[in-house]
Amino acid sequence: VQLVESGGGSVQAGGSLTLSCAASGYIYRTFVMGWFRQAPGQEREWVASISDADGQPSYSDSVKGRFTLSQGKAKRTLYLQMNTLKPEDTAMYYCAGCDIGVCSVIPDVNYWGHGAQVTVSP
Predict the structure, then answer these.
(1) pLDDT tens across the length of the chain (122 residues)
(2) C-beta separation of 118 from 82 below 8 A
C-alpha cells in the first residue's frame, strides 16, 4: 500500500487548510487510515482516524472541534479539514494506514505517507 498526501501549506492563525491522502495498492476490508503529526523536536502524535468497527472518526483533544475527518469511496481517500488553525498546529502531517484497528497508535500503523508540511503563523 502506498499513501500520498497533498494539500499542505502556510496560513495565518485562524485560517484553514485541507489535507488529502490517497491510498493505492491492495487493501484489506478492515483497512483504515488516519493522520499523525510531528513538530520539530517532538514525538509523532496521533491527530485523527476512522474506526473500521463503526466508521466514526475520532480526534485528539488538541484538534477536536476544529478538524474534521472524512473518507472517500472504497476507503481509499481520506481528508482532513483543518479550521481555526493555531501556531501550535505547525507540523509535518503524516497519513497512516492500518490493516486493522483504529489506527490511533504508532505500533498499529502498517503504512506511512511521506508527509505534508503545515505551517501556521501568528
Answers:
(1) 999 999 999 999 999 999 999 999 998 888 899 999 999 999 999 999 987 777 789 999 999 999 999 998 777 899 999 999 999 999 999 999 999 888 999 999 999 999 999 999 99
(2) yes
Question: Are residues 27 and 75 in contact, defined by beta-carbon separation less than 8 angstroms?
Answer: yes
What letter represents residue 56's amino acid?
Q
Q: Which residues contact 79 (CB under 8 A, 6 or more apart)?
A: 18, 19, 20, 21, 69, 70, 71, 72
> For residue 115, is it left (φ>0), alpha (ψ between -120 and 50) or beta?
left
